[in-house]
Amino acid sequence: GKVNLPPLLKPPSYLLNLYTSSDSIATSFHKNIRGYNILLACISFEANINKEFQKQGISNFRIHGQVYHCIGSLLPENNHSPTFAQLYIYATEHENENQKNIMQDLNHDILLYLQNMLDECNPYIQSFCQVRNIILSNITSEISMIIHSDRTHNLHHYNASASSELAAIMIGDGHNIELTNQDIVLRLHDKGLQRISETYLSYDPLHYILLFPKGDD
After folding, report:
1. Is 213 part of a structural domain of the chain?
2. 151 lies in which domain range?
3. Which of 112-116, 146-150, 190-194 has the highest mean pLDDT?
4. pLDDT for the residue numbered 72
5. CA-CA to 146 of 20 to 30 Å: which in 51, 81, 123, 203?
6. 215 in a domain, yes or no?
7. Quick one: 195 exposed, middle or buried, by C-beta within 10 A (0-12, 13-18, 19+)?
8. Which alpha helices (DSSP H) does 24-107 contain, by range?
9. If you ran DSSP here, which 8-state letter would residue 113 be given?
C-alpha cells in the first residue's frame, strides 16, 4: 500500500519477558494486562454509559455516542486523589501506593518493575518527573507543560523520541505561549478535562502505554 508504518520499538527486556514467557508471573500479567495499562496510562476514558444493560445477566456496558480520552491538570484538586498522569507527579514515595489503592488485585512487584521501567525509558513519564522535580524544588508556584502536536521525524531512524521533542516545561501559567491547534497545555491546577483526539500524535503512547513503553508514535 501507499502507507508505510515504522516498526514498533522493541520493548524493554522486562516487559518483553512478561509478554512472551509462560511462567506464573507472566501468566498473572497476561490475566490483568488491561488493569496494568489502565493504571499506568496518562489519559482517561470518558463516555456516556447506558446503565440499563448493567442490571442483569453478564456484566457489560453499552456506550451512547462517542468515546473520549481526556487529560486533567498536573496536580489533583484539593481533597482529590491523584489519577493517571498525576500519579507520576504527586511524589515518588506516594506513587506506587496510590496506584495500588486504585486496583488492589494487581501484583505489587510487577507494578513496581513496570513503573521503574517507564521512569527509565518513556519520554512522557520523564517529562512528568521533571515537573515533579521542579515542584519539589519550590522554584516557582506556576508551571505549565506543553505536549507538542507537531514534531519532525527522520523516517530513516526509528528511535524513541527524546522528552524535549515531546514536551516543553514552562515557568508560568502557559496563557502567553503560542500554540498550534492540537498542542496540549497542562497547568498545575486547571478545572475540567481536555479531550484528546484519536488522531492526535501522542494519543496512542499516552493511552496504550504498555504497547508503546518508549513513547514511539
Report:
1. no
2. 13-207
3. 112-116
4. 64
5. 81
6. no
7. middle
8. 24-31, 33-40, 92-102
9. H
